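Give me structure tokens for this 349-residue protein.
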Amino acid sequence: MYTREIQPPRETLIEQGIPVPGTWNKAFTRVNLLDIHHPYSWPLPRWLKNNRIKEWESFYVQDEHFLLGAIFGNFKLFQFAQVLLYDKNAGKKYIYRKLLWGKRWRMPRNLYHASVECRSPRFFFRIHTWLDADTIKLDIDIAATKKQPAFTVHLAYSLKEHEVTPLVAALNFTERRNMYTFKALTAVRGDVVLGERHIILNPVRCTGVFCDYKGFFPYRIRGIFCGSMGFDGDGRRYGFHIAENQAKETRKNNENALWVDGNCTPLPPVRITMPNGAESDWVIQDLEGMVDLVFTPKEINRFLANFLITRGDFFASIGYYNGMLVNAGGEQIQVRNQWGIGEKLYLRV
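Here you go.
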């Protein structure tokens, strides 16, 4: 069965100007990729190197009634935010987007006590990453439009150290260009106001995954992301977040993880195929027999942006997963009609 070394915590992922690949179970005190010496073969001024670093944070939350997914990205030439709420009982989705040019916000370089916010007209969000207080908070306030009701949300992820084991990974694209990610699955407490409707998210029944990304990604970024969370047949809180990206040596090191009752199992690299296109079944499998899933999209959401030197194609589908996963103890976790999100990203930026 696939295993991967979980390294002891360290202060930084850069050593003498060289990024250190690996997998850890604790966030770094500071992540500043500008500390890497000569990430490109030709000399670049610091401001231009900074423009090559792309970063985003993603939030996924689910209980028996609702599924919420949100992404907030700083791609330097533009910033992009998308919030997607799906009412399972009514079979109805609500989607809110904001695209801004220039540098309106920057993701924090550490998760222990930092915040980022956007106060653009009719669209407000604030992310407070506060690992020192065992929590990550998200606040959103979006004005009503002709087609969508006003939307307000407050989420609080509980990251108590004895209850949650995160997955932290640093992956190399080249020897000196890398990406970093922090992922955790936790109980979530929150409130959602949709129009005149007030929804309370009870942490006993509500589960969420938080992801933080930053890296010297290639000029053409391609990635597929699959995730879901909830409770298994034994009532245990569980979830997974799996990706296929452009990193090297993904068998030795990757960003795939399964959580069961707070315990994290690093998963092997996977192959995600779409035999009949992205709007039909996605097949997610590995070579170790630990990942065998099918994602069936139900609600298709796509956002395209094409402006001269930059292009973005963000495909986010709500659907359900079936199949099985295997944890570090060799136990098969059965996945049966579990709602989740599948995302396919292409950026030329």
